[in-house]
Amino acid sequence: MSSVKPKFKSRKTSNLQNIFAYEKYWAECYGVSEYLPHSMAEMEALGWDSCDVILVTGDAYVDHPSFGMALIGRLLESQGFRVGIIDQPDWQTCEPFKILGKPNLFFGVTAGNMDSMINRYTADRKLRHDDAYTPDDVGGKRPDHAVAVYTQRCKEAWSDIPVVIGGIEASLRRIAHYDYWSDKVKRSVLVDSKADLLVFGNGERQITEIAHRLSRGENINKLDNIRGTAYMVKHQQKNWMEIDSSRIDRPGKVDAVVSPYKMVDQTSCSDAPSSGDSQQTEDEDGIIAIPLKNIVKSLDRERSVIRLPSYERVISDAVLYAHASRILHLETNPGNARALVQRHGGRDVWLNPPPYPLTTEELDQLFELPYKRLPHFDYKGKKMPAYEMIRFSINIMRGCFGGCTFCSITEHEGRVIQNRSEDSIIREIEEIRDNVPEFKGYISDLGGPTANMWRLACDDKEIESVCRRLSCVYPKICSHMNTDHGPLTHLYQRARKLPGIKKVFVASGLRYDLAVRSPEYVKELVTHHVGGYLKIAPEHTEEGTLSKMMKPKIDSYYEFKQMFEKFSKEAGKEQYLIPYFIAAHPGTTIEEMVNLALWLKENKFRLDQVQNFYPSPMATATAMYYSERNPLKKLSYKSEKVFTAKGEKVRRLHKALLRYHDPKNWPLIRETLRGMGRNDLIGDGDKQLVPAEEKRKSSSSKRSYKRSYKS
User: Fold this and answer.
1) Angle, CA 600 vertex, CA 598 and CA 603 arms, to 5°
2) Beta 53-57 vs 83-87: how paired, if at all?
3) CATH 3.40.50.2300 domain extents, the chain
4) 331 and 384 Cβ atoms separated by less than 8 Å
5) Is the whole-model pTM more than 0.85?
6) Which class is domain 28-233?
7) Each residue's pLDDT tens digit, 668-707
8) 596-602-604 Cα angle (round to 5)
9) φ and ψ of 264, to 5 deg
């Protein structure tokens, strides 16, 4: 196999092409548009006879870098392409998908900044009647499973035009996935939508290459070697070494966790292939299957593909579903990830390795494109909550290495933090100050997916390129992680001293277990960037639940709280921490929820808004929820069972315990406590959870508890 050229560029190569270094497409001569057109009249005003690319989105068009379609659209415009936007089209027919005419190159389709099902339904599967990404917050402006619906309408409108799907919905549904709203495992969205190509993760590298290659006349079916893309194939590709996923992480005996920094010769395990399995074989399609013992140390990872259990197998076997999820998450580091393949009926969904992160130079250029920073003028006078929330905020970075199992940031943006430069961030603050209407001197947020991960990274690039840890901070912060918040502290100081800037807030989620490593950072944050309240997310107090979330122990919260109160007092400010918690997370027992409620009462927290666990597509906790197994460990049919709150009543109880102070919840909590034999928690004492009834009602509470909450 040494004679076979790698299909993808190695992580070690330094010649990755800058996404802004492509030769511009000929239509560059049309210049920059005030807004990307979303009507034929706007196109004609620009002198266009057609669009090269048409982007279809479930969000209303806001020309701001926090909105994915604006960002991708402006990027393609900077490459010289004429880009139009069809936003929130009526999906009942294909006619609204023809309003900009026929695109010359392709349609780009996304559900918007959110998965369409999460956007339309609550965690209790109830229909929402609002939509923050729609003018005047009106609900119902996008269909369920919007990516598939929009793609089908694009195909109906122009059957000969390629459709490329992307964004969060496509990214998190790229393989067979559990869909909470139908309570079923669904096929890859690539199969259901019949799109030509799927872009996963942040899509700038992929979409730029796709556009330029199509503009040179390449066929969409030949674009099979772009990182961060997935496509359908009837036959496996030749000259690839195929590895059954069970050879890497066999659903058999549970092994101890091994070092993530080296490939381990698993042939020492008792379930390794026998010597009789040692000969490689090649099938008629040229796929080479090599036993694990021959490939662990010498495998050409650039030409290997891991076969996940098929869609047909995972829908009938929850343990295999959890196994497939585990393998996908282990293969997300761009430095060492291998291609993945999963059978759906008679065809394969083929996923190339993840894209390489953007450099600081590229990210700066991307965020400094000529955004109008306003909703399209058609929406003048209408309020859009999502825009109102971010209009004066600055995104300073991408990615998250926290690995929280209930969160999908890592699966979409990756674990490697992508940083903007300090100068670029300052220039954006000045742009808002000088040009955005109604700016009063307050930057609402200087952050990102995690506010304080800017410029934090592994201190050894070789280790980073081979690491397979799911989190750099759990169960403890990795010794190779640089946790110096000095550069971020300096950024905050520089930003707040700008002329015309009254205050710079930090409202993004804060990783407080990292923050406490830098007391000077905490002091700067608390003294100058908190508006009386700071929201943080311990998520739970009990170690059993926290271990399933991959969140730090509650001790970290106490350490940060002590610093927060100390520096608030020194600054002469009365400020408070507002903790967030999740109810009904997989692995959370009723006993643990009761303990959390007692903790809340002891600390005098009365939560107004609480959230039940939301099983979003592809999250590790979603695999835990569906399979009732723990994919953070090697899986077997005898391995750890995870208690999962699935029924409506038990989920309602979890939520009620977070609001122990609400009289509406007292009857349910009393019934539960009696069923648990915890009558000592009913009464008016400081260490009792809910008051006693005036007249106790008889009940077979113990039987009810066991039947309702432990079955």
Assistant:
1) 110
2) parallel
3) 28-233
4) no
5) yes
6) alpha beta
7) 999 999 999 999 999 999 999 999 986 554 444 444 444 3
8) 100
9) -110, 130
